[in-house]
Amino acid sequence: MSSLVVLLLTAIFASSGAVPSEVVVNDAVNVAVHSTVDLRSQLVHQKNVIALKNLGPADLNSYFFALNEPELRVIVFNNEHGRKLPFKKIEWDSNSSFYEVTLDEDVKQNEKYKLSCMITYANKITPAVKKRTFDEDQLVKFVGNVRFFSPYRTIFHHVEYLLHDPFLEVSKNATHLESTKITYIFYDTHTYAVDRVVIVLVKNDAFVVVKNIQRSIDVSHYGKIHVQDEVVIENNGVRLVGPFSGGKMKATTGWFYTHLPACTENIKFFDILGNNSKTQVYHFIDYITLKFNTRYPLLGGWKSSYVLSYDVPVHEYVLMDEEHYSLQMRALDYVLTDVVIESAVVKIKLPEGAQIKRVILPNSLTLENEGDGSNPDEQIIVLKGVNLFENYISNVTINYSFNPLYMLRVPLVISVLFEGAFLVVLVGKYFVL
Ligand SMILES: *[C@@H]1O[C@H](CO)[C@@H](O)[C@H](O)[C@H]1NC(C)=O
Ligand SMILES: *[C@@H]1O[C@H](CO)[C@@H](O)[C@H](O)[C@H]1NC(C)=O
Ligand SMILES: *[C@@H]1O[C@H](CO)[C@@H](O)[C@H](O)[C@H]1NC(C)=O
Ligand SMILES: *[C@@H]1O[C@H](CO)[C@@H](O)[C@H](O)[C@H]1NC(C)=O
């Protein structure tokens, strides 16, 4: 008997098309899968704890996880002790992919292995209606596959949806129903099972997305790094229509929070109309929190923008060894909790006279060098990213060389000019006399 079972998909269960040829599914079974789907924030966090068993005679050293959800997502696999497992993504079609996860031990025949998979989805909770009036609740819906979609059979599957507020409607009868928890239990789920469930909820918070963030990091060896974020945000929630009824308004936009490094100084927050004083700064031991509000409430369908700027001391982020320098700081920092950043551009300007040696990029961003060329001594590095969420906060490292004498050049030029002028005056005086 062959140890490998090549799965030929039948059209009924597959989302479409044939499985990619690199996917040769090994012989295993999901003994038990416990899924928790957290619908309490704007991003959906799903955790699957999978106990599998090797059925084949050959040792099992990889596991195929399949997903047929088209939404943006970030996925991480861990072993039972929380250590990350490496994986390779194999595209199936526009909505589906396989993840070939490398197990950290060889699982013998009939032995079990436990792993977990954490998925964060963006855009999985969407407005359920097109518009609402000011005194109506915002209805949103979640659509997901309640079954465990897998190339392996699943003997037991327990799935729980966690809600913040009681739901309004659910399209499929649950095994257990509580006001803020919907539970389903399934026995013997076939491969590639799909059964969509729709949950309608009330969520009056703003559905904020960062349409665009332009960050500039200006490194000066005179003591400070100047950071400026120009942020365009939009409320992607249900569009508000009809007369404004201040008193009965259900829409809340609340305060926004962002976090800055503890060493931040000189914080400024403004928008196109100028100083926006609706801010408050809290100093904690490890960080600073800025609480702010946009000048006008960010109601459903509305856009707003703001500029946040601050300084951080250069010695916290630039390591120096003779003429070799290394800038290490977050390319993108915390923006807002649980939001998607649709587009980001980070411009890092090194001091005049710096020579870039090496750039180590964070995963989420790509190098898009620009260096406008107007000043050959000026070094600019441009990074770009799209559809970022979850683990977008990571360091960029730029190694460069810089001659400290360069810094003396500007004052030197000025003093030479002054001395020159003084001389001219003196000489002039001498000749006049
Ligand atoms: C992907 O999903 C969308 C929406 O669910 C559907 O309309 C489309 O046909 C799917 N595409 C494929 C290739 O299955
Ligand atoms: C849910 O259960 C009720 C009775 O308990 C039944 O009348 C109804 O048809 C079921 N709905 C679905 C979607 O299965
Ligand atoms: C903005 O306005 C507030 C209140 O009027 C004032 O306290 C603050 O200093 C101003 N900030 C700037 C940067 O002008
Ligand atoms: C990122 O950079 C900061 C500041 O230089 C440093 O303290 C931190 O250890 C770095 N983090 C990683 C993961 O390298």
UniProtKB/TrEMBL annotation:
Q: Membrane-spanning residues where?
A: 406-432
Question: Which BP terms in the Gene Ontology apply to this protein?
Answer: protein N-linked glycosylation via asparagine
- An annotated GO cellular component: oligosaccharyltransferase complex
**Pfam families cross-referenced by the UniProt entry:** Ribophorin_I
Question: Per the similarity annotation, which family is this?
Answer: Belongs to the OST1 family.
> What subunit structure does UniProt give?
Component of the oligosaccharyltransferase (OST) complex.
Q: What is this protein called?
A: Dolichyl-diphosphooligosaccharide--protein glycosyltransferase subunit 1
Q: What is the lineage of its organism?
A: Eukaryota, Metazoa, Ecdysozoa, Arthropoda, Hexapoda
